[in-house]
Amino acid sequence: MKHPMNNQNIVKSRIRQEWENFTNRTLLYDKETIRNMCDKIHFYDCVMIFFSENDRIPEKVFRFLWHREEIILNMWLLYLEQEHLRFLTWAEIEKLLEFWMEL
């Protein structure tokens, strides 16, 4: 029997799909373009790991992300706009999400 998908599963599935699409597109680029994208590639990987391995994400985050499209891309664009935000640790990704949710 299939279990119904909840907000968390749906958002995580959409994030995984976005990450896979990004990865597949990136593999089509030439080496120099990929080297120039290393920060963005690292960002996508960090966000993907955060959502796939972290079981302590509050439900309010999933409710916020439920209606958002291109979640990782929008987080990346926010990161580029806000120089004080970081993404290398789960705590930093949480702060990035909190900042986005407060906008």
End-to-end separation in angstroms reads 40 Å
| Main β sheet profile | none
Structural classification: mainly alpha
Q: What count of helical segments does DSSP give?
A: 6
SSE blueprint:
Layout: H1 7-26, H2 31-36, H3 38-53, H4 59-65, H5 71-81, H6 90-102
Helix pairs in contact: 1-3
Question: Could you explain the architecture of this structure?
Answer:
It is built from 6 helices and no strands. The chain has helices at residues 7-26, 31-36, 38-53, 59-65, 71-81, 90-102. The model has no long low-confidence stretch (mean pLDDT 95). The protein has 103 residues and is mostly helical. Helix 1 runs antiparallel to helix 3 (38-53).
Task: Give a quick precis of the structure.
With 103 residues, the protein is mostly helical. The chain has 6 helices and no strands. It is globular.
List keywords for this structure.
single chain, 103 residues, mainly alpha, 71% helix, 0% strand
